[in-house]
Amino acid sequence: MITHINSVNVYVTDQDRALSFYRDGLGFEVNIDQQAGPDFRWISIAPAGAQTQLMLYRTTPDMAGK
Predict the structure, then answer these.
(1) Which residues of 16-44 are buried (b: 16+ CB within 10 A; e: fewer)?
(2) DSSP three-state, residue 2
(3) CB 54 within 8 Å of CB 8
(4) I want to staple 12 with a disulfide (CB 3.0 to 4.6 A). Which of 18, 20, 37, 48 is the partner?
(5) CATH topology of domain 7-63
(6) How does pLDDT run across 46-64, given as a tens digit for each residue?
(7) How far is Cα 35 from Cα 50, in angstroms, rounded to an integer?
(8) CA separation (Å) from 63 to 30, 39, 44, 53, 66?
């Protein structure tokens, strides 16, 4: 039985723009914003006090059209 959702992946083309929208526009808090290698940035955001976090993943060229 599922009791809650820990995280939801949100695929974006521009992580900076998406982060600005959720953080500055909607007031979400940044849990993690860390570069993890040259081509990967780990961003986790959530509304204050929420159990569920959004993971902002950058789309890759191989994901185009899927």
Answers:
(1) eebbeebeeeeebeeeeeeeeeeeebebb
(2) coil
(3) yes
(4) 18
(5) 2,3-Dihydroxybiphenyl 1,2-Dioxygenase; domain 1 (3.10.180)
(6) 999 999 999 999 987 666 5
(7) 24
(8) 26, 15, 21, 23, 6
Residue 28 corresponds to which amino acid? F
CB atoms within 10 A of CB 15: 16
- Band the pLDDT of 34: cuts 50, 70, 90: very high
- Residue 52, classed as helix, strand or coil, is coil
Taking the C-alpha atoms of residue 25 and residue 11, their distance in angstroms, rounded to an integer, is 18
Predicted confidence (pLDDT) at residue 39 exceeds the cutoff of 90? no
How much is the average pLDDT of 24-48? 95
Specify the residue for token string 């995280």.
Answer: 7
